[in-house]
Amino acid sequence: MSELVSNKKVGAYHHMVFSVGEIASVAKPGNFVAIAVGGESSQLVLRRAFAIYRTFDRGSSAGLLEIVVAPHGAGSIWLTNQVPGTKIDLIAPLGNAFGIPTEPVRALLVGGGYGSAPLFGLSEVLKNRGCRVDMVLGASTAMKIYAPLDGKRSVSSLTITTEDGSTGTAGKVTDVLPEIIAASQVDIIYSCGPMGMLEAINKIAVDFNIVHQCSIEESMACGIGVCMTCVLPIKGEDGVIRMLRSCIDGPVVDAETVIWDSKRSIPEGTWGAN
Amino acid sequence: MFNYRTNLGQAEFENPIFTASGCAGSGKELSQFFNLTELGAVVTKSIMLKPRSGRATPRMAETPSGMLNSIGLQGPGIDQFLETDIPWLREQGATIVVSIAGESTEDYAVLARKLRAVPGLAALEVNISCPNVENRGQVFACHPATARAAIEAVRRNIGGELPIIAKLTPDVTSIVEIAQEVVAAGADAIALINTVLGMVIDTTTMRPKLAGKTGGLSGPAIRPIAVRAIYQVHEALPQVRILGMGGVSSGLDAFELILAGASAVSVGTATFGNPTAVIKIKEELKNELIEHGFDSLREAVGYAHRSEGNLI
To answer: Is the same domain home to A39 and A123?
Structure first.
């Protein structure tokens, strides 16, 4: 069990901090945490998965883990209602991490809504490697942009888009990407957000011939690889499409390998399709 | 000294808490959390003849005290399974129950032939009740004749002493009738229950939430159905051992299934919420049994069936 240290409302979201001990020293940007919700007598049987916003390794017993939660369902609402001092049952770090280039490259980080959360930890790692980091964050409205001040310090430029124009450029992240990519000569795109957004970013990445790593989100029951609910079709190096688990083989995947247009069907030629 | 040992047919187990097929893969992922030898048995995910992609996503919807899944038996097929998963499990020293599923009676016969010479298996679970197949007509356990044919095919081809556990669905008019058929066909024990067929409609999109439309309901929501099915089958066939499952998430839940007539209990959906649930339940059930004055697990099996004059 991990103690909830802080729970603060930030715009439409909650920034939550947990005391997690040694977990903080092994978590990497891109990893996620699975949290039991609802308490002892809950009718909610499954954990909720959240991308790790960042961790602070302060020695073995004092590590902190932070997440950004959008309260929209019974589980996330329960979680955001918890007060500091509450013991929370969490499992972390889970899943893979963003791949970090060995050379100092020019990186573009694109986040949708609270999908910006894991990108700030990533930008710090990239900056420490000598990378130039540009960031684009988009949401439907200003309240749903998550961009804390200390997070902004790690990026060279930050562009914000909102669909209602309440802050930043009116429109979607994909409306501003081509110009930024051309101006900054981007080598790699990292993204996190809704699947539709990731797919749209991927089209641009393919057009510009840029490597694109995205953190995907499929509904998940276990988070540890046993339930097989969070799969998505991914083309392997051998050209074969397989239904891979986003909790184990992801959540970070090479966007170009994802079969994006397979919504609610198994793509033709998938290994074991019947 | 409390005796926790149990048996299903001729197969003996150190303790009665197993994983449930489809809820623990082949044990590898859970072995990060505990030693697989602590389990009564690892029941592997139902394996089919050929590799299988499973159904499209979304495959999961959480429901009150449960969840609906439509995985559709995604897996590598029996050949790769025998090459990689079984040797690995054997290396771990795990007690292995292999679960198989087929699309035809012939599939079950071929699967049994491929498994008959495999060393180190404790028992074979014959899943004839997966609800996530395209054609509901393939749910062998829904009809006495098809249930019987599938189990007969395995019995004829498995050879030797390997006990057969027939896994049944509660989605039938008379579970006792199906149980009697599979026992007559050569099943040594019965696994009760598979998931219950259900559906969730997304009220935003106003369409079925799962890509496969229907799915199998599991979790605490179905526990009373499991208790009922186990009770009915144990009453009709008291000599046949039952591997009980359905919404068990505590030792007390497992105790309820034991009282109804289960000789062993599989833990499924609880593992999704808590990877170490099986270990917790194993300890809790033992404590429950001791606290209720039982000297062995076997004494408690079917204890709810005793006559009124026999109260302790």
So the answer is: no
pTM: 0.93
β strands within chain B, DSSP E: 6-8, 11-13, 17-19, 42-43, 60-63, 66-69, 96-100, 121-127, 164-167, 189-192, 196-199, 201-202, 207-208, 214-218, 241-244, 264-267
- The gap from C-alpha B33 to its chain's centroid, in whole angstroms, comes to 21
* CB distance B248 to B269 below 8 Å: no
Give the pLDDT confidence score for residue B95 in this predicted structure. Answer: 98
Q: Is A220 on the interface with B (CB under 8 A)?
A: yes
Q: What is the pLDDT of residues A67-77, one digit of tens each?
A: 999 999 999 99
Determine, for residues B51 and A264 on separate chains, whether the beta-carbon distance falls below 8 Å: no
The 3-class secondary structure across A24-58, one letter per residue, is HHHCCCCCEEEECCCCCCCCCCCCEEEEEEEEECC
Distance between CA B69 and CA B133 in Å, rounded? 12
Q: Give the closest-approach CA distance of B242 to chain A in angstroms.
A: 24
CATH code at position B247: 3.20.20.70
Coil/strand/helix, residue B113: helix
Assess whether B23 carries a catalytic annotation. Answer: no
Is A46 in the same domain as A73? yes
Residue A99 maps to a domain: no
- Give how far Cα A78 sits from Cα of A20, A73, A88, B105, Å: 20, 8, 11, 48
Domain limits for position B204? 6-310
> Which site among B30, B36, B59 would you substitute to test the A interface, given the most A Cβ atoms closer than 10 Å to its Cβ?
B59
Distance CA B132, CA B153 (A): 22
Q: Is the dihedral of CA B244, B55, A243, A173 positive or negative?
A: negative
Q: Are residues A239 and A261 in the same domain?
A: yes
Yes or no, beta carbons of A264 and B57 under 8 Å apart? yes
**Contact A218/B at CB under 8 A:** yes
Nearest to A264 among B30, B56, B271 (CB): B56
Distance of alpha carbon A235 from alpha carbon A201, whole angstroms = 18
Residue B137: pLDDT over 70: no
Q: Are residues A82 and A124 in the same domain?
A: no
Q: What is the pLDDT of residue A141?
A: 95
Strand-pair category, A169-170 with A188-192:
unpaired
Question: Into how many domains does chain B fold?
Answer: 1
DSSP B45-62: PPB-SS-B--PPSP-EEE
Structure confidence at residue B56 (pLDDT): 93
Q: Structural domain of residue A57, as residue ranges? A: 2-94
Judge if A211 and A122 occupy the same domain.
yes
Report yes or no: A181 and A108 within 8 Å, Cβ to Cβ.
yes
Cα separation, A65 vs B235, whole angstroms: 53
Task: Give contacts of B51 with chain A, Cβ < 8 Å.
Answer: 271-272
Mutate to test the interface with B, among A90, A227, A241 (most CBs of B within 10 A): A227
Phi-psi group of B129: left, alpha or beta (phi > 0 → left; psi -120 to 50 → alpha; rest → beta): alpha
d(CA A108, CA A188): 6
Catalytic position from the list B17, B94, B124, B130? B130
Q: What confidence tens digit (pLDDT) does each residue in A93-151 have?
A: 999 999 999 999 999 999 999 999 999 999 999 999 999 999 999 999 999 999 887 77
